């Protein structure tokens, strides 16, 4: 399914779609094409460094694709924000679910490319 550009969506819609998407303020953003080799190299190097640093601190390091759901309420089924940061560090085990992370991770890293720079601006 391809979301309409003018409609607002929630996580309940998001889980029905094929491909990689993010939601920011309910608006769907397609995450293709795949990242460059340089992008993936940076993500792997950083994730290794974070994993080494956090290994004895009860924190978990996840790399994309990994859903982070942000909601204004306690009902994350209808979250208007679903993002997949390149790297997420989660130090609150209660935020982890089989489908990703509920609420903001302790730390996120987004390796910027021209296509992601605009989305980062929208989130801030």
TrEMBL record:
Pfam families associated with the record: Uma2
Keyword Nuclease: yes
Keywords, sorted A to Z: Endonuclease, Hydrolase, Nuclease
GO molecular function: endonuclease activity
Domain Putative restriction endonuclease: 13-117
InterPro entries the record matches: Nuclease_put_TT1808 (IPR012296), Restrct_endonuc-II-like (IPR011335), Uma2 (IPR008538)
Protein's UniProt name: Uma2 family endonuclease
């Amino acid at each position: 399914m391809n979301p309409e550009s003018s409609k607002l969506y929630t996580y309940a819609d998001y889980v029905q779609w094929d491909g990689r998407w993010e939601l920011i303020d309910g608006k769907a953003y397609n995450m293709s094409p795949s990242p460059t080799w340089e992008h993936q190299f940076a993500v792997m190097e950083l994730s290794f460094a974070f994993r080494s640093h956090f290994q004895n601190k009860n924190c978990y390091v996840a790399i994309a694709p990994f859903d982070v759901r942000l909601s204004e309420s306690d009902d994350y089924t209808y979250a208007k924000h679903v993002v997949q940061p390149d790297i997420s560090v989660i130090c609150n085990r209660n935020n982890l679910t089989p489908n990703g992370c509920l609420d903001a991770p302790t730390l996120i890293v987004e390796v910027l490319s021209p296509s992601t720079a605009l989305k980062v601006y929208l989130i801030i």
